[in-house]
């Protein structure tokens, strides 16, 4: 399968989730802004439903944003009839995000995509361009059948 076809497949899955009200796009507001070969950009608009006890965006929400972007970057590089699952996720939080802050932007890129594992990295910036979090993931690559 070509990269363009793989990106089209992923975009269709994301659209279906939003249309049917399922997934992190619907529940948390994690939205795909760009997809390319080995690259994905997702956005998130902070809101009160994402709050932690300190009334800032919960770290788990930021981790989900990053995991989604990194997984999507990996997905674009996988051959047809191949899926992935996250084995390990490492996140470094740099600064808090207020619930009324502007849109966050997470850019993820693949570092390695092999037959059995894949790795990716991501960076989240706030609307002022300041780094909010960065991290890496390792994915298990799973051919179907």
UniProtKB/TrEMBL annotation:
Keywords: Hydrolase. Pfam families: 4HBT. The keyword Hydrolase applies. Coiled coil: none annotated. Its EC number is 3.1.2.-. Residues 56-132 form the Thioesterase domain. The keyword Hydrolase applies. It is an enzyme of class 3 (hydrolase). GO terms for molecular function: hydrolase activity. It comes from the Bacteria. InterPro entries: HotDog_dom_sf, PAAI_dom, Thioestr_dom. PANTHER family: 1,4-DIHYDROXY-2-NAPHTHOYL-COA THIOESTERASE 1, BLR5584 PROTEIN. This is PaaI family thioesterase.
